[in-house]
């Protein structure tokens, strides 16, 4: 059970765990692509393959795979691999292990067998695999490619360290929480002070605005009173000027009328004297006497 759980309990701070996950994903990707390529080769052309996508892919994914399988680089690499495989005279059954390494493993197996016969000691299959084939990073003998479980001593040490780290982290969290509570209290206090200051400032602004409004109203009243007085004074001055102008015009008209009446009277008297002189004859002085008497 522990071995199974180890496959799912990953520590992404360890390089081995990250590399195992990446290699597993890369292997799964290659397997999936090879399976898709085998399905693609069943069709005579790309157009025919596009008409029937693989059930495990969407149309968009299948189109991208078809574009990959028909690309020049992929086809060139595929042809070269076919040529290389055609030159093999013996099928290689050792996987990625070379012939030299396979020979060395066989020699180690013979030596280990002789050692077991001399010591009379038995080993498990996994111990035999590890002794002969050696240890491989990211590969557990008997389980395949997976994250290697840590030894129990290491786990105990790590557990103790983890408990210490957890206690330290818990203390740090408590300290941070206390500091945060203190900061929140200080912030609330400052906020209350700022709100009180803001209210006082608003009240001061209101009082100042009221004072300015009253001053403006008083100034406007004084200005209106001044303008009213000036207007009345201008009206009085204008009326006085018009009265004087009327008196002057009246005097001028009177003088002009007197002159005209005097001229008319003189003319009438002259005309009358002329008529009398022509009617009665006599001296001019007598005529004038008659006119004056008349």
Describe the structure.
The chain has about 290 residues and is mainly alpha-helical. The chain folds into 3 domains: about 10-85, no CATH class; about 95-145; about 185-265. The chain is about 80% helix and about 0% strand. It contains 9 helices and 2 strands; from the N terminus they run H-H-H-H-H-H-H-E-E-H-H. A two-stranded antiparallel sheet has the order 1-2. Helix 6 (about 100-120) packs across helix 7 (about 125-135) and helix 8 (about 150-280) packs across helix 9 (about 285-294). The longest helix is centred in the C-terminal third of the chain and has 129 residues, at about 150-280. About 5% of the residues are buried. The mean pLDDT is about 80. It holds the Pfam family Transposase_24. InterPro entries: Probable_transposase_24. Keywords: Coiled coil.
Give structural attributes.
single chain; 294 residues; mainly alpha; two-stranded antiparallel ribbon; 2 strands; Probable_transposase_24; coiled coil
Instruction: Please summarize the sheet with the most strands.
Output: 2 strands, antiparallel
Structural class, from helix and strand content? mainly alpha
State the total count of DSSP E strands: 2
Quick one: overall form? elongated
In helices, the fraction of residues equals over 70%
Binned strand content: under 5%
Residue windows where pLDDT falls under 50 for at least 5 positions = none
Order of helices and strands: HHHHHHHEEHH
As for the number of domains, it is: 3
Cα end-to-end separation? 169 Å
Radius of gyration from CA coordinates:
65 Å
Rounded mean pLDDT is 80
Numbering strands along the chain, what is their spatial order in the largest sheet? 1-2
Q: How many helices in DSSP terms? A: 9
Keywords: Coiled coil
InterPro entries: Probable_transposase_24
Pfam families: Transposase_24
Coiled coil: 159-259
């Amino acid at each position: 059970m522990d071995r199974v759980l180890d496959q799912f309990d990953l520590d992404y701070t360890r390089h081995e765990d990250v590399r195992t996950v990446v290699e597993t994903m890369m292997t799964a990707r290659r397997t999936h692509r090879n399976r898709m390529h085998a399905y693609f080769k069943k069709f005579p052309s790309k157009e025919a393959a596009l008409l029937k996508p693989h059930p495990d892919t969407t149309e968009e994914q299948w189109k991208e795979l078809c574009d990959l399988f028909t690309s020049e680089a992929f086809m060139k690499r595929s042809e070269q691999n076919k040529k290389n495989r055609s030159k093999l005279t013996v099928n290689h059954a050792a996987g990625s292990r070379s012939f030299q390494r396979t020979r060395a493993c066989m020699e180690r197996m013979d030596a280990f067998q002789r050692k077991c016969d001399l010591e009379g000691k038995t080993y498990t299959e996994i111990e035999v695999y590890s002794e002969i084939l050696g240890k491989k990073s990211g590969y557990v003998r008997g389980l395949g490619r997976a994250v290697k479980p840590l030894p129990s001593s290491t786990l105990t040490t790590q557990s103790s360290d983890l408990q210490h780290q957890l206690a330290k982290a818990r203390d740090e969290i408590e300290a941070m929480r206390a500091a945060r509570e203190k900061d929140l209290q200080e912030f609330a206090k400052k906020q209350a002070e700022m709100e009180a200051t803001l209210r006082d400032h608003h009240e001061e602004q209101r009082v100042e605005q009221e004072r300015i409004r009253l001053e403006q109203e008083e100034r406007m009243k004084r200005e209106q009173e001044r303008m009213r007085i000036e207007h009345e004074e201008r009206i009085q001055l204008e009326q006085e000027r018009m009265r004087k102008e009327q008196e002057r015009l009246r005097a001028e008209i009177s003088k002009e009328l007197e002159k005209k009446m005097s001229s008319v009277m003189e003319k009438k008297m002259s005309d009358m004297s002329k008529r009398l002189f022509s009617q009665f004859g006599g001296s001019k002085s007598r005529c004038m006497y008659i006119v004056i008497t008349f």
